[in-house]
Amino acid sequence: MDNLAGVIKFTADNMAAEEEKPYIPVFCDVSLKTLAEFMLDRWKMKVPDVMISIVTGVYHNKNWPEDYAIAFQAGLTKVINTSHAWILTHGFHTGVVKLLGEAVRDELDRRTVRKTRTVRRYNKRVSQITLVGICTDSLVNELEAFQGGEGSSGRRRVELDLGVEKPARQKFNLDVYHTHYVIVNGSTSKSLVTFRTDLEKELQRFSSCRKNFGNGYTENSSDEDDTHSAVPLRPTPDPSASRSQMGVPLVALMLQGGPYEILQVWTYIKNRTPVVVVKGSGLAADLFAYVYEETNESGDLEKDLANITPEILKRLETMFPKMKQGSDEDRQECCQKLLDCMRLDSAQEDEHYITILDLTRASSDLADIDLYILKAIFGSQKTREVDWKEQIRRDLMLTLQWNRPDFAREEIMNRSIKVKVDKDIFRLALIMKNREDFVDLILHQGFKTHKFLSHRALIDLFCHAEDTEFFAVNVLGNLMGYVPGKTYFHIWHEY
């Protein structure tokens, strides 16, 4: 695949510098195993903690109220800052994906400012941003630019000027703030859904294997070198580097969308991938939420589905006028996929794959989208006796990383089984910034600190604490009588 891959050079009047991003053109019949290996190895993509697939339409989208847009961007910014997430989209600068790209742009600007202005006070762990666009070539504006030859480095090089003019009709600019692009040649809307969902599952499988058994690009990512300490430091474990062999979770997030996004969600649920549906975002997501709420906890699912089928067909024609002009077969197929999603979800006794984030409720907020992603992951799990301890460990690690002690308390600690927290998790709770509530939660579980603390352990914690000043004053100050500004040469020497 090396002879096909290249880079896209983006230029525009409002860009501070030219951007080059890796891309690869493929056909739908490409070996997904080969493609997944290429992406992880050649692009050096760090193994993720979670994969989030944004399900939204290129055509079927509408403008949001400003407060929705701001909350959505804040929620996803929190996700990319608290974990190493891969976010996968259709890759075009339109609708919800445009908002996501702008959120990444603003976050990169904030990181640049912090890097240049902030005096080092933290051993700050900075999550790598990975935003992958899986795009159909038929919608790419200036597609002819991809027919160019090799650049000076021997790689294919495409130049796209985003500032010249508006895209041609039925064409869209690629979103410049994505980090990688897979351009799918000769795909239809339906075949692209199959290709994308299959590729995501293959990437999930490869990532899970490398996370569990090594040989992955898993080192910590940071914008700053850790050269301030005078002592050799033991490598700080990445919170994602759990010993669990439960795999990397994949979650779909449905916002707006059209008939093909309904097909995409049906494919996820059929593959046992959890889906968060944002009710109130509009279009297909609202229709999906309506069907779910009308049939959820139904005493007679088939009867309820039959009763609401006429209303589903009516709403499909109202939301998507082209369906009214099209064949009855297309409408019936789309309706059937919706009904099958409800059947698939209700068929599982202990697992549920549909989570509704209802924006019409005052208690729901897109800024808390991480909470709903966690709910979806936990709800789709099936606890097996042979690995329930590893599952709990993985769940605790994820809630710790995303800093959701409220969710850990409700969904993990309140289970009927005794939860034993291991030393690695307690250590991470101590060294990560703003995790005091987690430390308190772990201590209330009966964690025996005297078996954890030692002279070496305290120095190790001090060297790796993300907020060293807070740690010195509030932890070492109470335990060892440490005074900030005083040098303890005998401690460093003994360590």
Based on the structure, what is the oligomeric state of the protein chains? single chain
Low-confidence stretches: 118-123, 216-245, 480-484, 487-495
- How many DSSP-defined strands? 10
The structure class reads: alpha/beta
Count of DSSP helices?
Answer: 18
CA(first)-CA(last) distance = 49 Å
Following the backbone from N to C, one meets helices and strands in this order, namely EEHEHEHEEEHEHEHHHHEHHHHHHHHH
Mean pLDDT: 81
Helicity range: 40-55%
Radius of gyration (Å): 24 Å
Report the major sheet: 10 strands, mixed
Order the strands across the largest sheet as they lie in space: 6-1-2-7-5-4-3-8-9-10
Tell me the strand percentage band.
5-15%
Basic shape: globular
Q: Explain this structure to me?
A:
It is a single chain. The protein has 495 residues and is an alpha/beta fold. It has helices at residues 32-41, 66-82, 95-117, 189-213, 259-270, 283-295, 301-319, 321-325, 328-346, 369-379, 388-401, 405-413, 423-431, 436-444, 449-452, 455-464, 468-480, 489-494, and strands at 6-11, 19-27, 50-55, 85-89, 130-136, 156-161, 180-185, 250-254, 275-279, 354-358. Strands 6-1-2-7-5-4-3-8-9-10 form a ten-stranded mixed beta sheet, sandwiched between helices. Helix 1 (32-41) crosses helix 4 (189-213), helix 4 packs parallel to helix 5 (259-270) and helix 7 (301-319) packs across helix 9 (328-346). It is globular, with a radius of gyration of 24 Å. The two termini are 49 Å apart.
